[in-house]
Specification:
The chain is an alpha+beta fold. Helices cover about 50% and strands about 15% of the residues. A hairpin with a 2-residue loop joins strand 4 and strand 5.
């Protein structure tokens, strides 16, 4: 399911949400324009669990490369050492939030943030939203670290922090609805679903995927951890004297 929009209008301009989208966009464009196809940026600023749990070890990953042999082009496994981090390893829990692994990863994350972030910032205020975003992003990174502490694979993306925003949205707007599209092969169908159900299904998918796939190539437990942290943070921050007043719904 892909959200198209919700039925909760914002009363304030989501400056922090726009700033995060802008920073992620600039970082992604820097990755795309890098001469080493972003590998240097990823090695320098992505979060690698092994760096945090065993700083004295140089992470080594196995990749595949095409090489020309007498028998033609063959795909071989190549061991590659990750370069040093440009910042202290624990700081990469923050820097990794602004990097992405490809266009679909980047566009999907920014769209979800655009849909749900403005309303959360509306309720929590600019400072409260910034605190929630960075805080849940760090918790998400720690959840992934706990799930695979010896992994040498770089972890990057705003998904964990955005999951925190989605968890906060589910708590703050229990009566909201989402207009979503469901791709069915070459057909697309749209429908309206209560936001807690939409987000609850998304959360359940993260849990199920984390259990069934193990470590894998997607940080499922970062998503789940960020979502849970977002709910908790919304409960705490939402009680502080910040943000906007009552919710006014709009109709589709």
């Amino acid at each position: 399911m892909i959200p198209l929009r919700d039925d909760i209008p914002s009363h304030t301009t989501p400056l922090v949400n726009y700033l995060v989208i802008a920073l992620c966009s600039l970082a992604f464009l820097a990755q795309q324009s890098s001469s080493d196809q972003s590998e240097g940026i990823v090695a320098s600023y992505a979060m690698i669990p092994l760096r945090l749990t065993d700083p004295g070890v140089t992470p080594v990953i196995e990749t595949q490369a095409q090489v020309r042999t007498p028998r033609g082009i063959e795909v071989v496994n190549v061991r590659k050492e990750m370069g040093p981090s440009a910042v202290p390893p624990w700081v990469t829990l923050i820097t990794c939030m602004f990097l992405h692994g490809g266009w679909m990863h980047f566009l999907g994350n920014m769209w979800f943030l655009y849909i749900f972030g403005d309303n959360v910032e509306d309720r929590l205020g600019h400072f409260g939203f910034a605190t929630l975003y960075l805080g849940t992003g760090i918790v998400a990174g720690l959840a992934h670290l706990a799930s695979d502490p010896s992994s040498p694979i770089p972890t990057l993306g705003a998904s964990g922090a955005i999951a925190g925003v989605m968890g906060a949205y589910a708590f703050l707007y229990p009566h909201a609805r989402v207009l979503a599209v469901l791709p069915l092969f070459v057909f697309f169908t749209t429908f309206v679903v209560p936001a807690p159900i939409f987000l609850g299904i998304w959360f359940a998918i993260q849990i199920f995927s984390g259990i069934s796939s193990g470590a894998g190539g997607v940080a499922w437990w970062a998503h789940a951890g960020g979502f849970a942290a977002g709910i908790i943070a919304a409960v705490i921050i939402g009680r502080l004297p910040m943000g906007h007043g009552p919710v006014v719904e709009r109709r589709f």
